[in-house]
Write a structure and sequence with these properties.
Keywords: Hydrolase. This is Haloacid dehalogenase. The chain is α/β, with parallel strands linked by helices and 232 residues long. It folds into two domains: 141 residues, HAD superfamily/HAD-like (Rossmann fold), CATH 3.40.50.1000; 79 residues, Orthogonal Bundle (DNA polymerase, domain 1). The protein contains nine helices and six strands, in the order βαααααβαβαβαββα. The protein has a six-stranded parallel sheet with strand order 3-2-1-4-5-6, with helices on both faces. β4, α8 and β5 form a beta-alpha-beta unit. The radius of gyration is 19 Å and the shape is elongated.
């Protein structure tokens, strides 16, 4: 890994916990709708369906998720849901936005080591305000030279980010929990990627591993193994 000069980290579920907040909120959403309809696995599928079709309008993040919960609640209850319960759903979204940022284990210790050897970046997708707010509250900004908040993570986006920051693709390493967003597009443009799985993954980020079987990337069980792998 001698030629690597820039290391970029994904943010949500790589630097700090994120998806469990959504999982917990979905359960609370089900409790609210339980007064109106029978709760089964179709409710989660319906919410995901609404959320997916709204991505092109609202983008990624809590605000779009909250609007999708409201839309799903109206559709699933045939508009019988009371205004007070719509208010409860909106409050769930506000609670998510105010949730404490919980930095994942070993992250700060690893960044302490890496900042002396590499140009460090955050490349994350989502709502600009929410992501900026989480980065600030995480206390991790002091480690990073550059932050890129993008609307989507695909090969074209990564190429543009590298071009904008004058980074050679052969000298770039991406680290994240999503094969779909953090590994596949990075490998496709000729850079390197390390996949560090997180125990709770959003359905939208899941892909069949056969899609990356022929690609060369590293999978690590913990970020704590990163310095040794890099030889620093």
């Amino acid at each position: 890994m001698d030629k690597i000069k820039t290391i970029a980290f994904d943010a949500d579920d790589t630097l700090w916990m994120n998806e469990p907040i959504f999982t917990d909120t979905r359960l609370k959403f089900e409790e609210i709708l339980g007064k109106y309809i029978s709760i089964n696995e179709n409710l989660e599928k319906e919410l995901y369906s609404v959320e997916s079709r709204n991505l092109k309008l609202f983008g990624y993040g809590i605000k779009g998720f909250t609007l999708s919960m409201v839309e799903s609640a109206l559709e699933l209850t045939n508009y019988a849901i009371k205004g007070k319960d719509i208010e409860r759903i909106i409050l769930l979204g506000k609670e998510m936005l105010e949730h404490p940022v919980q930095v994942l284990p070993d992250i700060e210790e690893v960044l302490d080591i890496l900042e002396n050897h590499y140009h460090l970046m955050i490349i994350t997708k989502g709502d600009l305000w929410d992501q900026e707010n989480k980065i600030a509250r995480s206390g991790l900004m002091r480690y990073f030279n550059t932050v890129e908040i993008v609307s989507e993570k695909n090969t074209a986006t990564y190429r543009e980010v590298l071009k904008r920051n004058s980074i050679n693709a052969a000298e770039f390493l991406m680290i994240g929990n999503s094969l779909k967003s953090d590994v596949l597009p990075v490998i496709e443009m000729g850079s390197q990627a390390i996949h560090i799985p997180f125990h709770d993954t959003w359905t939208h980020e899941m892909i069949d591993k056969s899609e990356v079987n022929e690609l060369t990337y590293i999978e690590m069980s913990s970020v704590s193994k990163l310095p040794e792998y890099l030889g620093v």
